[in-house]
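Exercise 3.2. Students should predict the tertiary structure of the chain below and write it as structure tokens, then compare their answer with the key that follows.

Predict this chain's 3D structure.
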Amino acid sequence: MKTVAVVPMKLNNQRLPKKNTKSFTNGKPLCYYILETLKKVGEIDEIYVYCSNPDIKQFIPDGVNYLARSEELDKDSTKMNEVLKAFARDVPADVYVMTHTTAPFVSADSIEKGVKAVLGGEYDSAFAVKKIQDFLWKDNSPFNYSLNNIPRTQDLPPMFEETSGFYIYKSEVITKLNRRIGDNPYIIEVSEIESVDIDEAEDFDIADAIYNHIIRKGQADSPIEKFRKAILSGKYVYGPFMKTADPMFVEAVGLAGFDFVILDMEHGPVSFERQQDNIRAAALHGMIPIIRVPNIDENTIGTALDIGAMGVQVPQVKNAEQARKVAESARFYPNGMRGVCRFVRAAQYSKTERNEYFAKSKELLVIIQLEGVEAIENLDEILDVEGIDILFVGPYDLSQSLGVTGDVENEIVINKMKSIIGQAKKKGKTVGTFVDNIKMLNLWREAGVQYLSYSVDIGIFTDACNGLMRAINKEEKLTQNIGGGTRQVVFAVFCTHLFMQSIRRWHK
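Answer key:
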């Protein structure tokens, strides 16, 4: 016997627009969950999404078919059984399984139980219910108890409510009786969570809370989820720029505990091919690898994300049009027009299921750099552009545009940056900047900057080398009259002291 599952969908829902493709927080589009559940039911031979709008295809996971239906079936006056009868004409089968995207928590076990019951021949249909055992009223009077003799809740006669989570029926039930429940149904009681159905905006919020606090409970957040949560909770995140090609330096940064690393392709010589290894090194230690691309170019931005960067940082954004181009170059349709290819590292070379790949791409960070007077003049318009996660104020280029090149501690630069930060914060935008000493780090942290890039890898290494040579030269003078053995001991103690000072300073 052939068993076919159908999930009817509309993209023009009135009560909750675009609900079928709306994503849970930290999750995927709503339609993903029931379709993945159906794929786990071994007795189902084929799965179809039945929708008049082909745009739904981008949200359908592998292993699920798309079948276009007439737009006439999208009318508000159309009854669901009319849709199911039309599908039965289009796709002949012995048994049908109808589910809704709005029931995302239905389990494969419950559906399988119903399918087996119908295939076994004893029942002509099956559907899900939840038990109601409570005090009910109808027409201003108690419905299932007497006011003169109020029983315990557990002693009330149980009643059952259809959940609309799934209906399983033989072909003749819909084709001859024009129903989805036959004369001899198998009733499957499901849990409160499985019975969740989403119709209104409030229903979606409740389901979103269930997903994040019950379904996902115990699942570790991805690095980018942790990063976003840190920003949303008001925490600071730190990371250096990296110009070197050796991933060993990236690993060292990760081992030190930094949150992100900016792989610099604007002022650095490293190719995309070499950056892949730097991205892998960052991922090993839970850091967010961000590539600063050299310019505003959709192909360059797309390539950076294709090789696995979790974000792009784009320099010299001067107006809203450029900011919009950056956002669209980093997002897939309908949020942008990033070039689509699943045979890339970001999609595990096509191993990642396509729906999951497109959904996860929405989490990627888009950072724009505002570095000149023109950008400041257009700041209000830039702040209104959707799809920008962080505004990075480049202090050195800004100082040049203000006529004090390189003097990033000049009051003119500081006041202008504080003004930018204030405007951004009013619109709920996260701000980032670059610092190369602790004094400026503290200044901008107190001003509300959360995304803080501290120095550059080669600069950090150079400073360390210079500091070490100063220490060696100082020790040389202190111990020049001391014997060799004693001198070695003094040198070792002195170096240990310097190291511990460095550790304490960074810990603070």
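Discussion points: The chain has a mean pLDDT of 90. The chain has three domains: 3-214, 223-461, 466-507.
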